[in-house]
């Protein structure tokens, strides 16, 4: 809270001075109002033409076109400040510098994949620069409650390094239990580094907390610090991972806070995932962490040597861990889900806490359902953000009309993100099915092929579905004129949430 108050106290005087200057300027320019209005209209038109030609999600462009045409000058200013998915120049410069030292990994595809799916793997590798690996060992945890004790035991076994990266870190019993182990391991000579998102943790973690970690030998850095004017609400680090010695990676879908492990009940029962990964695929997560750490820390981290291990004689399928970046022209996970839905033959099951789809992905869901694929989506029954939840529900009618089945988890909030398609391919990651996650933030995801974890994910989906209510058009999903108009407005606004 102190951190937020400090920033507000800095920002308010600056905003007040700016408003005073604008009022004086408006009074001085009043005699030329008609000419100024004409010039602004022309500039707005040129800006609209620029926006139309951009390779951007249509839904997002529609919103900003309405804003800019209605309020030319303020609309264009707001777009440049908050709407453009490109990051600020300092962030782009930082990440580009370290990416030059982190070349793309060699491409590979599962040897038994059909030609169409092989194209999808090559496409994803080309977009992300990540590599496919034989899946040596992957353990799926159907609740965050189950994976936390495993993570703590793994930390105790660390010998060389511990890398932790999270969107939110919240002080409390849970995080304190991690810090206690991290402090002891740092004293033993283990290289311990913690990276968190500055905006995600703005009300829960601050500079004093990081200083306290530093004094205990734990290196700590904030991703993309949210500075007044130069900061951005987009391009946040929503990734979540913990890497130990290059041998094991935990990629839970949850943050390091009480509600994610049901230690504190805020929105009913919290349904989340955990993933424990061993083997050569861990190198992908190490590369991810090293890249971001070197971009935002003054303590450079040389790329750790990959753990040398014998070839996996009988791999449990294959896995491709990667991360999404708003800096890329192509949104990797959005494209991947479109690809998987277009290739689905029997079923496609999705978990997501939020449902705000771009036109292309929504059409992929609709087309899959209309050609007879069993398409299902599990959503929360108790929302954590009521407005966002209502926006998500505005997408229900079109999907339900096409035959997509939607279920809401009665016991509480679903924070899990993942999918399984035909039992052959699927993902577990941090990617929500909303615009911000798919296009504007950094995320991490793992694509599995013919791995036993997919069967576990399938069973978990069906078990969770039995605790859900079936959303039915005309019964618990409204179809009145009022709801139709409200849904239209909410869908236009959804890219901002």
From the 3D structure, determine the CATH topology of the largest domain.
Endonuclease, Chain A
The gyration radius over C-alpha positions equals 23 Å
Based on Cα principal axes, name the global outline: globular
CATH top level label of the largest domain: Alpha Beta
Number of strands: 18
Number of domains: 3
Assigned CATH superfamily of the largest domain: Endonuclease Chain A
Strand content: 15-25%
Uncertain ranges: 1-11
Across the major sheet, the strand order is: 1-10-17-16-15-11-12-13-18
Largest sheet: 9 strands, mixed
Termini distance?
Answer: 23 Å
Q: What is the subunit organization of this protein?
A: single chain
Task: Tell me the helix content.
Answer: 40-55%
CATH architecture descriptor of the largest domain: 2-Layer Sandwich
* Total helical elements: 17
Structural class by SSE content: alpha/beta
Please state the average pLDDT score: 84
